[in-house]
Design brief:
heterotrimer; A mainly alpha (174); B mainly alpha (486); C mainly alpha (502); A: mainly alpha; Four Helix Bundle (Hemerythrin (Met), subunit A); 0% strand; B: 486 residues; mainly alpha; two-stranded antiparallel sheet; 21 helices
Chain lengths: 174, 486, 502
């Protein structure tokens, strides 16, 4: 029962933030919504007990990719968009409350996990490391071709993106 | 862990490796040259070196071997060998066209070549793969390169719009396909096609999830080959893209996707699935109708050719339909391959001729632009006429034999309705295929038709023309060789 | 030998492509005469005593489907072959001055068309036949579309699509036959002789049975080509817009491909269906005769009048065929030849006058006899042939057809006789209007020269044929006798043998 609720909740977050990426005019909001979406997907992975993938998702997507996006967005001149940032007392109160809540959630979770560290959950840790080991073994034996082909895909995407950016018309036509 | 990957796999996968490294070669040279673009023909030469090496590696495999690579993620059999060599040829001809076409031979020709070769690698992966995940990777590799290629050279709004449409709709289709793959994995427990095929009969009877999954997988693939109702992107994208890329898309993508469809159906993924069989019949008839009727009202030559390619996808799907009923039918597979071959050569040739006419960067070629070409450029007019007639299906050109084989295999399984609409479609197509011929021979030119100096393109067209004539007469030999290698 | 005759025109077409302009006509003329002489070989070496296929050549083409290059001639097809090769030099001569633009392409089209027509007459393999049948569409389309009149593009596309529409159903029926062959004979084949042996299921009285459907599919394709009412509507447009040589070859030979198709394919392959539908086709034939004649009578344009007279004449051929007795079938074959000669000649004559005056409206003419006496004589002789006056070839053909029709269905016979009267009516009316009476606009305004040597030559040859065929038909009929008897007697279980040796 709880699984169902949490699944639908996470789904809702993912879908809502994905929609927000497309519909919201402010680019920074879009980028952050995408990051939230990615975090939601990581949460899904957690619930499926694919801890390694969840970690990778968080680190790579929400961490590296989104940070990259935000950095690029920062490089644009956003005076016009800055005005879209909400002002006023109510929104300030909301922002402060939310950030305090999130911070306390993270602090609480961290302290809880640290307190559990010494209590003999080495089996769980071993489980996780074993599954990571199996995963990597699979990646390099059974699915090695797929893995390498993805490498080609990545190279191609990089070259393609740069080529597009430097193209005569760029991404915008005359 | 037992060693699953060995040297044998590297040898089998060598064509792909070679192509990848060769594709980077022009880019590397460009970088080392301080970002100065090489001459297009030099890049072309490097690319062709790679293509030839890759192609010859395929011939190293013996004709009736069925070899698995990378723990049978890829399977190389007769069908795959033919299709791969064919894909390599297609890319080669399209590169010929690109080297001469004014839109693609600009300062980014090395990137263009790299992307074309990457797409080729994706196509080769798709036609060889027997695992759903590997297929998806190949599909994405093929498609993403094409999204970029469509957007790359032109400055017109129409090109960017085309690229956007293709990208968004294509990603949607890939996502649907992936969802289907996930469902299929969920219900069968494996992504390896032959294994799925073995347990299909139990899955189909009970498992709704499997049925939905396989249907979604099919939908994603049908999008790629523009079957109704997933065809709407085709005219806009084909029209907006640079002509060599249009040629590449309309032939290579179809060949690769259909060869994967052959693999899919012949492993029995849809065996006994009556719903799919009925659905395919309806879709085939509608595709043929939409493609043929849509082409009639077109005045833009590229758009007309794109609607015609929608119709031709419908014809090829007939062969796949037969495979759905009897996965072991060798004739249907040979017919599909032969028809794809016939269609691809003619299409490349036709787009090549369109490319010849595109002297300026942003000029579109209308059907009326061909007026009076018979007088000024009689040989080109003749070649184009032969291509048009072959697409219609007039004997003794190669298109007729392709249709003959396909309709025969359809009739063999009593798909009378489909065959009837197929031939009616051919009759309708006469009207719009003959219109350029009429213009060339029977109307006077408004102004002189000038071609840019495009030698390699011309050579490519000439080769296609000869192949069309030759294989029309010798079609049985080709068919025989295909069937032998199955 | 057949392959030589069949592909020689293609070789010539290829050679013509590379010749300088001035050489094209002489070489074409010489080559076409040569081709005709080659084809005479068949006349000299034909064995009149057997109904078997002669001069046979057979080579496997697409073995997986049992399709082979299988050609042969018998009594039914021999004169059609000769007619085709005979007409071509005449056409080339007739178009010597009237076609002056893109003459290379024109002559190349003519030779490719000749190969296609010959191919369909000698092909004994169904797919091979279909190939040549469709192949004939392209050069004809070009000839009408490039050198034709003001509405030529419309006419040529109509012709192409109409004919192809019929043919594709024939293709489907053909493929079904091949599969039936696989079931019944153990091996898929499109060899006509094997297909003759098939036992095609037929259910009495029901429409949806295989034999009836296949017969109708074949019949549709042939009926469009003949042309039979009501699918004849492409013909008047095609003829009016076609250049003279196009009309001649269309009326002279191509229409015969349709009737030949009936004789070779539709009737022998589907005997029970034929029996069931005989009345229907006879009826359509009679309708064609009378309708064609009536419409011809009100035409203001000479060429369209002759075009509708074509429809009318081919109606005779059809009823003769479906009489299914020796007289009728012989008559219909003979009439095919006659129609080729006389209607071809009519078109040539009309073309000659059109070259001079550039109008085809009957109203513009009158009193031509005074200005061009020799032309008048020629025209009247050919008219006699068309009307079937005794002494001309037309009489023999129509007489045989009417006898055959009366033997099989008296009512249709009576209707056909009415058609004869009507035929005389419109032709003579036209002759009177054009040649006699007051001098019309054309005579008064244009300086009209009578026939020059070249034209006189063509016309003389044709007139000789008219009288030869009319006075001594035995020469021609001897060749067809045995084959026709064989067909008529064995309709329900038709089979052909192959004659061994050259």
């Amino acid at each position: 029962m709880t699984e169902a609720i949490s699944f639908y909740l996470i789904q809702f977050i993912i879908l809502a933030s994905a929609l927000a990426v497309v519909l919201v005019p402010n680019p920074i909001y879009s980028a952050i919504s995408l990051a939230v979406s990615m975090t939601g997907i990581a949460a899904l992975f957690f619930s499926l007990e694919a801890y390694f993938i969840a970690g990778v998702q968080l680190v790579v997507y929400a961490g590296a990719v989104m940070v990259l996006f935000v950095m690029v967005v920062m490089l644009f001149d956003l005076k016009k968009e800055k005005r879209a940032f909400s002002r006023g007392t109510l929104s300030r109160v909301l922002k402060t409350t939310l950030s305090v809540l999130i911070f306390s959630m993270i602090a609480g979770a961290l302290s809880m996990s640290f307190s559990e560290l010494g209590s003999g959950d080495s089996i769980a840790k071993e489980d996780i490391t074993r599954s990571i080991k199996e995963l990597s073994a699979l990646l390099y034996t059974k699915y090695v071709f797929a893995f390498e082909a993805l490498a080609i895909l990545l190279v191609m995407v990089i070259v393609g993106a740069i080529a597009l950016a430097k193209a005569k018309g760029g991404t915008h036509a005359k | 862990m037992e060693t699953i990957v060995g040297v044998k796999d590297l040898v089998l996968g060598a064509p792909l490796l070679v192509l990848f490294f060769i594709s980077i070669l022009p880019l590397t040279i460009k970088v080392l040259n301080n970002n100065k673009e090489q001459r297009p023909y030099a890049v072309l030469l490097q690319a062709w070196m790679g293509l030839i090496i890759a192609g010859s590696l395929y011939f190293l495999q013996s004709p009736d071997a069925v070899l698995g690579a990378f723990d049978t993620a890829l399977i190389f059999d007769g069908v795959n060998r033919w299709m791969s060599v064919f894909l390599i040829l297609i890319s080669g001809f399209c590169l010929f066209m690109s080297a001469d076409n004014i839109q693609t031979r600009g300062s980014q020709f090395s990137e263009h070549t790299f992307l074309v070769l990457s797409s080729l690698i994706g196509m080769l992966i798709m036609s060889a793969s027997s695992d759903l995940i590997v297929t998806f990777i190949g599909l994405e590799l093929m498609s993403i390169s094409l999204y970029v290629l469509v957007a790359l050279s032109k400055e017109q709004v129409i090109a960017k719009e085309a690229a956007f449409k293709y990208f968004i709709l294509g990603s949607l289709a890939s996502a649907i396909m992936l969802y289907g793959i996930a469902l299929m994995y969920g219900s069968s427990g494996t992504t390896y096609l032959p294994d799925i095929g073995r347990i299909v009969s139990e899955l189909l009877v009970e498992d709704v999830i499997y049925q939905i999954g396989s249907l979604l997988l099919l939908v994603g693939l049908l999008f790629k080959v523009s079957i109704f109702p997933f065809h709407a992107w085709t005219p806009d994208v084909y029209q907006g893209a640079p002509t060599p890329i249009t040629a590449f898309m309309s032939t290579g993508v179809k060949v690769a996707t259909f060869s994967f469809l052959i693999r899919l159906f012949s492993q029995g993924i849809y065996e006994g699935n009556d719903f799919i069989i009925q659905l395919l019949q309806v879709l085939i008839v509608l595709t043929i109708l939409v493609g043929n009727i849509g082409a009639i009202i077109q005045s833009n030559l590229k758009r007309m050719l794109s609607y015609s390619s929608i119709a031709h996808s419908g014809y090829v799907l007939i062969g796949i339909l037969v495979l759905a009923v009897n996965p072991r039918d060798g004739l249907a597979v040979a017919a599909v391959m032969f028809y794809l071959f016939a269609y691809a050569i003619v299409n490349i040739g036709s787009f090549g001729i369109v490319s010849l006419k595109e002297k300026d960067e942003n000029k579109t070629v209308f059907v009326n632009d061909l007026n009076g070409m018979a007088k000024t450029k009689p040989i080109t007019a003749l070649i184009f006429t032969v291509f048009m007639l072959s697409l219609t299906g007039i004997p003794p050109l190669i298109g007729f034999f392709g249709k003959l084989y396909l309709f025969s295999s359809a009739l063999q399984y009593e798909f009378y309705w489909v065959a009837m609409w197929g031939v009616i479609g051919s009759v309708i197509s006469v009207y719009y295929y003959l219109r350029p011929v009429v213009n060339m021979y029977m109307r006077e030119a408004d102004k002189d038709i000038e071609f840019a100096r495009q030698d390699l393109n011309t050579i490519g067209i000439g080769i296609c023309f000869l192949l069309v004539l030759l294989f029309g007469i010798l079609s049985s030999n080709v068919l025989n060789s295909i069937q032998v290698s199955l | 030998m057949i392959s030589l005759v069949l592909f020689f025109p293609l070789a010539i077409a290829l050679i013509l492509a590379f010749l300088p302009k001035y050489w094209v006509r002489p070489v074409a003329l010489f080559a076409s005469i040569l081709e005709f002489l080659f084809s005479l070989h068949f006349v000299y070496h034909f064995d009149k005593s057997t109904s078997a296929l002669q001069f046979v050549e057979q080579v496997a083409w697409i073995p997986q489907f049992g399709i082979s290059y299988f050609v042969g001639i018998d009594g039914i097809s021999i004169w059609l072959v000769i007619l085709s090769t005979f007409i071509l030099p005449i056409i080339i001569l007739a178009s010597w001055t009237s076609i002056d633009d893109k003459i290379k392409t024109f002559h190349i089209s003519l030779f490719v068309l000749l190969t296609a027509m010959l191919g369909s007459f000698v092909a004994m393999d169904a797919v091979l036949f279909y190939t040549f049948w469709e192949l004939s569409l392209i050069p004809m389309y070009l000839i009408v579309g490039v050198w034709g009149g003001p509405r030529r593009i419309y006419a040529s596309i109509k012709f192409f699509i109409y004919t192809m529409f019929g043919s594709v159903f024939m293709l489907l029926a053909l493929i079904s036959l091949m599969f039936m062959a696989e079931q019944q004979l153990g091996q898929m084949t499109s060899n006509l002789l094997s297909l003759y042996q098939l036992n095609i299921p037929y259910i009495e009285g029901a429409w949806g049975n295989p034999q009836a459907l296949m017969f109708l599919a074949f019949a549709l394709a042939f009926a469009i080509k003949v042309p039979m009412f009501p699918v004849h509507t492409w013909l008047p447009d095609a003829h009016t817009e076609a250049p003279t040589p196009g009309s001649v070859i269309l009326a002279g030979v191509m229409l015969k491909m349709g009737t030949y198709g009936f004789l070779r394919f539709a009737i022998p392959l589907f005997p029970e269906a034929v029996n069931e539908f005989t009345w229907f086709f006879m009826f359509l034939g009679v309708v064609g005769i009378i309708y064609g004649a009536l419409v011809a009578m009100v035409q203001p344009d000479i060429k369209k009048l002759v075009a509708y007279s074509s429809v009318s004449h081919m109606g005779y051929v059809v009823i003769g065929m479906f009489a299914l007795n020796a007289y009728g079938v012989t008559g219909s074959i003979y009439q095919m030849l006659n129609h080729g000669i006389s209607t071809g000649a009519l078109f040539i004559l009309v073309g000659m006058i059109y070259d001079r005056t550039h109008t085809r409206k009957i109203a513009d003419y009158g009193g031509l006899a005074k200005a061009m006496p020799i032309f008048t004589i020629a025209f009247i002789i050919i008219t006699m042939s068309s009307i079937a006056v005794p002494g001309t070839n037309g009489f023999i053909g129509e007489f045989l057809i009417l006898m055959g029709t009366f033997l099989s269905d008296k009512a249709m016979g009576v209707a056909a006789v009415v058609g004869v009267v009507l035929g005389a009516a419109y032709m003579l009316w036209m002759v009177k209007k054009v040649f006699f009476g007051e001098a019309g606009k054309v005579v008064k305004e244009t300086k009209l020269e009578d026939l020059n040597t070249r034209e006189l030559g063509i016309v003389t040859i044709l007139i000789i044929m008219v009288f030869w065929m009319g006075i001594y038909p035995k020469f021609f009929l001897d060749y067809t006798q045995v084959s026709v008897d064989h067909l008529v007697e064995n309709i329900s279980s038709y089979s052909l043998e192959v004659k061994v040796g050259e």
